[in-house]
Amino acid sequence: MGTEEQGGQKTANKIEPATGKLGVMVVGLGAVATTMIAGVEAVRRGLAKPIGSLTQMGTIRLGKRTDNKSPLIKDFVPLADLKDVVFAGWDIFADNVYESATHAKVLDEKTLTQLKPYLETIKPMPAVFDQYYVKRLNGTHVKKGKNKRDLANQLITDIRAFRKTVDRVVMIWCASTEIFIEPTAVHQSIEAFEKGLEHDDIAIAPSQIYAYAALSEGVPFANGAPNLTVDTPAMIELSKRNAAPICGKDFKTGQTLMKTVLAPAFKARMLGVRGWFSTNILGNRDGEVLDDPQSFKTKEESKLGSLDYIFQPELYPDLYKNLYHKIRINYYPPRGDDKEAWDNIDIFGWLGYPMQIKVNFLCRDSILAAPIALDLVLFLDLAKRTPSLRSIGIQEWLSFYLKSPQTAAGLYPEHDLFIQSMKLKNTLRHIMGADLITHLGLEYYD
Ligand SMILES: NC(=O)c1ccc[n+]([C@@H]2O[C@H](COP(=O)([O-])OP(=O)(O)OC[C@H]3O[C@@H](n4cnc5c(N)ncnc54)[C@H](O)[C@@H]3O)[C@@H](O)[C@H]2O)c1
Predict the structure, then answer these.
(1) Beta pairing partners, 345
(2) Pocket residue to mutate for ligand 1, from 25, 102, 135, 286, most atoms within 8 A of Cβ
(3) How do residues 345-383 score in pLDDT, each as one tens digit?
(4) Does the pLDDT value for residue 7 go beyond 50?
(5) Could you give the angle at which helices 233-241 and 206-216 cross, rounded to 10 degrees?
(6) For the whole model, what pTM was predicted?
C-alpha cells in the first residue's frame, strides 16, 4: 500500500502556511532570469497575465467529474503569493536586471521602461565562476577565494545576509550550461565532496558550489540547466539531511516539450519510429555558450534521453529498436532569443508503411522558460513547507518541467508530459489529503 498507484489515500495535512516574504536567489541574471523577474513584476502591476505558469493559471479537478469542483491550484495549495516574492541573484557581469534584460532583447522596450525603476534595484552579487567550465564566457564580476571551500563559504554569507531580509529562501540555477562532467569519487558522499572543495577538485564546477551552499543552509535548489549540479549522491544526501528539496535538470521548453508530447502519442497507438532528426538555430548568449562542443555535449545528453525512455525499445523492438535520433544546435546570431526548431520524424504504420511528420516550432526561448522557472521556485518552497516532501530529496513530481528529470537511484525517469502532469497534480492532491484521480471512472456507469 501507499504506492503512487493507490487512489484515495489521505495524508496528514500540516503544510506550513506561506506567510511572509519568499526570497528567490537566482544564479545567473541572463535572458531566462530577467524575463522571469520582469514578468513577475509586470503581473504584480496588472500589466500582463502570467501565461504559461501552471501555479498562476492552472486549475486542479477535485472529486468526481460530476462534482464540478476545479479550483485554481494556487487556491488549493498554499503557495507564496507573487506580491511576497523578492528577488536577489549572482552574475559574472555587474549589469543590473534592467540592463541585462535590455541586452537579452526578449521583452520589448516599452515593457522594460515601465518596469525600469524596479528592475534597476536588483543588482547581482559577484559570482563564483571559472572559465574552465564555460569556455565562451569571460566575466569580471567574480569572487576570489583561496579554494572552492572558501568560495562556498562566501556564497553562504550571501545567503545568510539575504535571509535576514525575507522569511524563506529558495535558489534556482538560471546560469549558463557548463562543460560535460561525469560523477567521480568526489561526488559520492558529503565528506568526499567537502574534501574536494578544500582541494579544488576539478570535477566540482561552480554550479555544484552554489548547490552545496544552498543545501548546506537548508535552501531548496532547482537546476534549470543540464549540468550535473545536484544530480549526485553527495548533493542528494545533503538535500535529505537538511530538508532542502531539489529538482533538475534542464528546463523543458521548446523542442523537448514537443517530443514528450508526440512520442507518447506514437507509442500509445503502436506506431513505429525509424528516425528523429532535430535541429535548432538560436542566437542568444545561451546559443553562444552551447556553440562550445563541451557545453553542447552537456545539453545533448540531456536532450537525447527522453525518446529512449518513452519508447522503451527493449519492450517494443519491432517499433523502436533501431531508432536513429540526432540533435543539432546551431548558433545563429540574427535570431537572438527567437529560437527556431525543426523536427523530421520518420514513422511507420500498418504492415510497416512509412510516413513522415515535420514540426517547425518558431518559439521564444525565454518566454517559454520564465514561467517554468517561476513555478519551480514556488513549488520547491511549497515542498520545503510540506512534511511529507521536505526530507525526501529529489522532487520527482516536478519532472513535468524538466528535460532530464532527476529520479531516485535505479528508477527510470518518466518523460511523457501527460504522466508527468498527472504525477504533479496527484502529488498536490496527496499532500492536501484529497482523493487521487485515477481516471478509472466506472462509478459513472453503475
Ligand atoms: N531558455 C530556454 O528555453 C532554456 C531551456 C532549458 C534550459 N535553459 C538553460 O537555462 C540557462 C539560462 O539560459 P539563458 O538563455 O538565460 O542564458 P543567458 O546566457 O542569457 O544567461 C545566463 C547567465 O548566467 C551567467 N552566468 C554564467 N555562469 C555563471 C556563474 N557561475 N555564476 C553566476 N552567473 C553565471 C551569465 O553571465 C549569464 O548572464 C542555460 O543554461 C540554458 O541552457 C534555457
Answers:
(1) 276, 357
(2) 286
(3) 999 999 999 999 999 999 999 999 999 999 999 999 999
(4) no
(5) 20
(6) 0.94
- Torsion sign (Cα): 74, 79, 81, 85: negative
pLDDT digits 0-9 by tens, 60-102: 999 999 999 999 999 999 999 999 999 999 999 999 999 999 9
Ligand 1 geometric centre to CA of 287 (Å): 10
Dist CA 432 CA 440 (whole Å): 21
Distance between CA atoms of residues 322 and 343, nearest Å: 18
User: What spacing in Å lies between the alpha carbon of 5 and ligand 1's midpoint?
Assistant: 37
Cβ < 6 A, ligand 1 pocket: 27-33, 90-93, 104, 127-129, 134, 137, 139, 174-177, 206, 224-225, 250-251, 253, 284-286, 289, 365-366, 368-369
CB 50 within 8 A of CB 112: no
Report the alpha-carbon distance of residue 375 to residue 198 in Å, rounded: 35
